[in-house]
Amino acid sequence: MNGLPIGVFDSGVGGLTVLRALRAGLPDETFVYLGDTARLPYGTKSPETIARYARQCAGRLVERGIKLLVVACNTASAVAIDDLRAHLPGIPVLGVVEPGAMAAVAASTSGRIAVIGTESTIRGGAYTRAILGRRADATVVGRACPLFVALAEEGWTDGEIPTAVARAYLDDLLTDVDTLVLGCTHFPLLHGVIAAVAGPRLAIVDSAQTTATAVATLLERTGLRAGGAPSAVTVAATPTPEDLARIRLLATDGRDRFARVGSRFLGVDLRPEAVEVVDL
Amino acid sequence: MNGLPIGVFDSGVGGLTVLRALRAGLPDETFVYLGDTARLPYGTKSPETIARYARQCAGRLVERGIKLLVVACNTASAVAIDDLRAHLPGIPVLGVVEPGAMAAVAASTSGRIAVIGTESTIRGGAYTRAILGRRADATVVGRACPLFVALAEEGWTDGEIPTAVARAYLDDLLTDVDTLVLGCTHFPLLHGVIAAVAGPRLAIVDSAQTTATAVATLLERTGLRAGGAPSAVTVAATPTPEDLARIRLLATDGRDRFARVGSRFLGVDLRPEAVEVVDL
After folding, report:
1. Alpha-carbon distance values, A15 to A77, A145, A186, B40 (Å)
2. Which of A5, A34, A70, B244 has the fewest C-beta atoms under 10 angstroms from its C-beta?
3. Is A14 helix (H, G, I), strand (E, B) or coil?
4. Active-site residue, selected from the candidate residues A79, A81, A184, A224
5. CA atoms of B174 and B103, how far apart (whole Å)
């Protein structure tokens, strides 16, 4: 069981930032990642449809044999975690929202926290509920930052344009908070620009990084860790091509684009042949 | 028959720029618009799936009674026009690619033409084929400009950020062409910024506008025009709220977002209640 891979799914390539953090923090583990690129985006779909898609993604990963499931998709984490846990009684399931909310509450002194994400994540309010569930007197302000998604996918992650976009989204949002949650798996690619605009006084919570930390803790607690000495979760370093041997990549459509855009998200050059197309 | 509406469909709100041009140019006509928002984007899906979705959209519009069908979606225009014509023998079908390509060939002196669109439109090469089919010695250069889509949906259509993005996409693309085709229904919203970056020496072909002109010509030719004297197609003016009485709007999901973002595309304030949600 401990030798089985960790399963990770997302609606597309965004979750590869979570996989990158997992890979960096858990050097003894292997991974199988599924991007449901044929049916993205999940955010515009109904909760019932999202739950059904999430079950199908999880089911395909379980067929391959996994010991733990990471839902690296904010929309599916917000909508389908309970349903997935009910459907997968033998397998621990972790989303990205809970670890991000926990880290935000831990990081914030004032309890005034900003969350940025896609339109559907912000409108759905999952981070707000999760933060208030841990600190009832917190004040959470949210803002949808869809241009950040487009910038990350385009690979425009520093310089004049991303900085101007970050200012437009963040300048007035951040006047009265001490913590900013990157509530979208695309946003870690813009961490540098966002941090520069936010300034040094703000704590930035990267939900990819906090999810990797939560997975490490869960593996220890459940005794599911793969062999080797326990290792601290480190900041994601640049993966080497050898790391790809530890990672199996599945997508439901478009492996050329998955490889091209995904290379930036995973931080290693992917060839299209490294991506297996599966039908759900 | 002549009193029936013109049917228009798109994968989302983008086609509302085509509807806006149609409405302005054809003041005696009525329209029924379907945005397949539940299943967007089409561009990442297989040709078979796109053709199936297009048949379903067209079928729903035909059920409502239409005299002519406009495919206001570049992806479906490129992939599914022939299939739709075969399935709808009694109804003229027009896409956005052919009118845009015709107008580009008419506008270009040098035969050197640039096309901008979404990644899937540019990769698919439909504009290039349509232009070369009309002028075999043309040189067509294409560039995907996905940030333009995000900017249009966000309503950031002038000022520093859109101008910087337009420069980044266009400066080197436009050095040796005399015509630029806006090959995405989102791009007319950025016409001012694009024209300013392109400079006065370039002809800009707006495929929404050219599609409206082609529809007017087709209505005359087929005798399908609604009552009243023939009217020249004019540049889209700002529609009045009364114009909404001539327009019926359907969407497959998310009428709040459809109304909010669609207001900018159609150029008139839409309330969510004006949007009927249909299931395909």
Report:
1. 12, 17, 8, 20
2. B244
3. coil
4. A184
5. 18
Contact A202, A180 (CB under 8 A): yes
Look up the CATH architecture of domain B6-95+208-277. Answer: 3-Layer(aba) Sandwich (3.40)
pLDDT at A106 over 90: yes
Domain extent listing, chain A? 6-95+208-277, 98-207
| Distance from C-alpha of A209 to C-alpha of A5, rounded to nearest angstrom | 19
pTM for the predicted model, two decimal places = 0.91
Percent of residues, chain B, with pLDDT higher than 90: 84
Q: Going along chain A, which residue ranges are E strands? A: 6-10, 31-35, 68-71, 93-95, 112-117, 139-144, 179-182, 203-206, 247-251, 275-277
- Using beta carbons and an 8 Å cutoff, which residues of A are at the interface with B? 37-38, 40, 44-46, 119, 146-147, 149-151, 153-154, 156, 160-161, 164-165, 168, 253-254, 257
Give the number of beta-carbon pairs within 8 Å between A and B: 50
CATH code for the part of the protein at A98-207: 3.40.50.1860
Q: What is the interface pTM, i.e. ipTM, of the complex?
A: 0.88
Q: Each residue of A59-85: pLDDT tens digit?
A: 999 999 999 999 999 999 999 999 999
Among A59-73, A127-141, A155-169, B231-245, the minimum mean pLDDT is found in: B231-245
Q: What tens digit of pLDDT does each residue of B21-36 get?
A: 999 999 999 999 999 9
A173, with CB counted inside 10 A (0-12, 13-18, 19+), is middle
With cut-offs at 50, 70 and 90, classify the pLDDT of residue B155: very high
